[in-house]
Design brief:
globular; Choline ABC transporter substrate-binding protein; D-Maltodextrin-Binding Protein, domain 2; 17 helices
């Protein structure tokens, strides 16, 4: 091939590639995802936002309840969700799968659990299983403390009450946000009041409170104390239009220990989620390298170099 021909081919390739990169930057520069108000998802969303900003993207995080968040994903109002807890959210996942417009990018966490638990006074009252609760109804004031209204776990608790399972038909579900619920549990523990509530790991509550997870809830919460995995979902159209950002999220996986640390910094140290994430990423460059393998900045530069430079400022 002559020098003229080689130069012509190079020019053609450059002319072809540049508009594609420009189009992707214009389409994908803002990445939209949601936060249901759970500290674990706030923490992982903060990690994602820190990485995205280091790569030149703009993260846009909307605070939406679980049902509204799934509708937003289904309707194309958001691009991603990092908090698909399974099997607790199976109903929502089935709806998305039926729509055929969403795909799973990765299982981002394993080793999680999610079921009812009691505080120390509750355990001292002899409650270790769902079946132990009703005999102690008066001590517990007939209340089960849940999280925000509309959450699938609350729906499972309410369904259990409605069906009078374990004799709980005359108990009441108290719905509130995660932090309000845990504040109530802590106050009750200090007052010596037995309390049953929705508990999960990862979460620093497991370090801050004496928690006894209850057996017997397999039908509603699954085996192994509601053993769960967490998944990242994305709109198929977004994945196709934004392969670089999608690659990042397909490689973005966490572990329980990491999330406990980040959540503790948010809840106990008062850090912003991105501030906590920047420190963690700076201290664990080897993990960040696996997340960013083959990922570039929005304008096509090496992604890992850009992120590490950003978190080191």
């Amino acid at each position: 091939m002559t020098t003229l021909k080689i130069s012509t081919v190079a020019l053609l390739l450059t002319a072809t590639a540049a508009p594609v990169l420009a189009d992707e930057a214009a389409t994908c520069g803002t990445v939209r995802y949601s936060d249901p108000g759970w500290t674990d998802i706030t923490a992982t969303n903060g990690v994602a936002a820190t990485l995205l900003e280091g790569l030149g993207y703009t993260p846009e995080i909307a605070t939406l309840s679980v049902p509204v968040g799934y509708e937003a994903l289904k309707n194309g109002d958001t691009d991603l969700f990092l908090g698909n807890w399974m099997p607790a959210q199976q109903k929502f996942r089935d709806d998305l799968d039926a729509a055929g417009t969403i795909q799973e990018l990765v299982q981002n966490l394993e080793g999680a659990k999610f079921t009812l638990a009691v505080n120390a006074p509750g355990a001292e009252a002899g409650v270790a299983d769902f079946a132990d609760l009703d005999a102690q109804k008066d001590a517990f004031d007939g209340k089960i403390y849940g999280i925000e209204p509309g959450a699938p776990a609350n729906q499972s608790i309410q369904a259990m009450i409605d069906a009078d399972e374990f004799g709980l038909g005359d108990w009441t579900l108290v719905e509130s946000g995660e932090q309000a619920m845990l504040a109530q549990v802590g106050r009750n523990a200090n007052a010596g009041t037995p309390t049953v509530f929705l508990a999960w790991a990862p979460h620093p509550m497991n370090e801050a409170l004496q928690i006894t997870y209850l057996s017997g809830g397999d039908e509603r919460f699954g085996p192994d104390y509601g053993g769960a995995t967490v998944h990242t979902l994305a709109r198929t159209e977004w994945v196709e239009a934004c392969p670089n950002a999608a690659k990042l999220f397909g490689q973005l996986v966490f572990d329980v220990s990491m999330e406990n640390v980040l959540m503790g910094k948010i809840l106990e140290d008062g850090m912003d989620a991105k501030e906590a994430a920047r420190g963690w990423i700076a201290d664990h460059p080897e993990v960040a390298a696996t997340w960013l393998e083959g990922v570039t900045t929005l304008d096509g530069q090496p992604g890992n170099d850009a992120v590490m430079a950003a978190v080191s400022k």
